[in-house]
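Lab notebook page, bench 4
Experiment: in silico fold of construct C2
Operator: M.H.
Input chain length: 169 residues
Purpose: comparison with the prior construct
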Amino acid sequence: MPKMTDPRDLFLHELGDLLYAENVLVKALPKLADEASDDKLRAGFEAHLEETKQHVKNVEKAFAKLGEKPSAEKCPAIDGIKAEHDKFMKDEDPSAEIRDMFLTGSGARAEHYEIAAYSGLITSAKALGESEVATLLEENLRQEEAALGKLESIAQRLAQGAKKPTAAR
């Protein structure tokens, strides 16, 4: 494999990484919604699924504006976040209360990853003179930040209502 030396090539690689991540999340969000017992958490995952479907379209439009065919690059980061979720759910068989608390954290980890990825891509798009691409990615970033805010609010509510552990004697 030749050494990558062109910033545009890196940008396309990172854009493909994010396309892969968004597609993984389109498949994962219905599962998260099904696992949630908290109504607001479930509704949040369902609403974010619709946004995530639009994120895929926006990333594909970004490729088109660059004159490129959309090409997903395997994203080990999102695969790791998903694997962590799957392992916890299988190994721990959590109560509904613990499951909802875990789901808010799992969702937040994905949002933090996406926010970091979009922030970097927006910076690169602007540096490459691709303002229309930056605008598409900024739309996705705003929705990811809003989704994270909602998850954090739900997480705080769930944590405040959680049963306190009994002291060991």
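Observations: The two ends are 60 Å apart (CA to CA). The helical segments are 7-35, 39-65, 76-92, 96-127, 131-161.
Next step: discuss at group meeting.
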